Amino acid sequence: MAKGRVTSEDWTMAALAALARGGVAAVAVDVLAKELAVTRGSFYWHFKNRDALLVAALETWERLATGEVIEEVSAEPDPLKRARALFARALEDEEIAGLEPAIVAQVDHPAVAEVLDRVTRTRLDYLTGVFTELGLPDGDARRRAVTAYAAYLGWIELRRAAPQAAPETVADSEGAREALDHLVELLVTGTPRNRAV
User: Which of 60, 147, 174, 185 is 20 to 30 A from 121 via CA?
Assistant: First the structure.
């Protein structure tokens, strides 16, 4: 990367990669400046301090991993196809491997806690809406959403922690498509809309 041409987005993506590698402590300005081949001055051109970078990075993750995913799958009018597309999109290989488990593990940090709470609420609300559209009553839709979200978190943590033991969790591996289809089928089984298909 050319010196002086590093954007705030470059800094936030570098911060997210560092977060995935080593948690909040790994988001160190000097280390990131070295990785980006720029001086600390570049950092201060874009951010007031390290906390501002951390918040910007987390908000970037929120936008990319929640806002844009929801926007993308919401274009599908059929709720069953939308549910399938949502899980397929959410469980494909991450752009930054291990990022979401790393963020979840840092929930004690105030900046992480705030964004993680917002992301979790947004995702659960969206999932509840999908399951409501699939014909479940509100309470059942919410419980199914919580179950689906727990399955998602477990899936990505298993992929991070034990990909050799559970290769089905790794996109493009043998059996990955079948495992994902099975998970989605379990999650939508019993919904009135799924029974009608």
Answer: 185
